[in-house]
Amino acid sequence: MELIHLDETGAARMVDVGAKQITQRTASAQAIITMKPETLQMIADGAAPKGDVFACARIAGIMAAKKTSEFIPMCHPIPIDSVDIKVEPISNTQVRLVSTLRCTHKTGVEMEALTAASVAALTIYDMCKAVDRGMRIDSVLLLHKDGGKSGTYDYQP
After folding, report:
1. I need a surface site. Which of 89, 112, 128, 152 has the fewest CB within 10 A?
2. Is position 132 annotated as part of the catalytic site?
3. Concatenated DSSP letters of 76-134
4. Model confidence over 22-36: pLDDT tens digits?
5. Which of 81, 84, 126, 132 is catalytic?
6. What DSSP character marks residue 58?
7. In this structure, are residues 31 and 121 in contact, taking their beta carbons and an 8 Å threshold?
8. Which of 65, 26, 66, 31 lies closest to 150, judged by CA?
9. pLDDT tens digits, residue range 77-101?
């Protein structure tokens, strides 16, 4: 398999997408944050000292998606059509964050989806670290992507 972010000498480069077709593209990614049951209950009760944790996480994920190319060196800035961040408790200690992005462009939105889910989870950590420094962020992964030359990908555990 060829690494397209390297030139013939092995130097890093930004891939030229100029000749690629504009297509509709979608990507979804997740992150899971684990915390103490009391921390998740505090969030659910709306009693976090810094405010509405899940609303802030959604906003942070959206903002991060729009800025992805600013901190992933070889990532193209792309016009994002939509960002959706779902925040769902999946147990009394875990919250799953799923980002879904869409664009119509020459390159996909996988990095933006991964960034959005990660930053949403980091925001929960930031807003609750005063009461639970032992929170853990895991399972950051691409769930789905479609569009473009490489076709569809679905995560298979």
Report:
1. 152
2. no
3. PP--EEEEEEEEEE-SSSEEEEEEEEEEEESS--HHHHHHHHHHHHHHHHHHHTTT-TT
4. 999 999 999 999 999
5. 126
6. H
7. yes
8. 26
9. 999 999 999 999 999 999 999 999 9
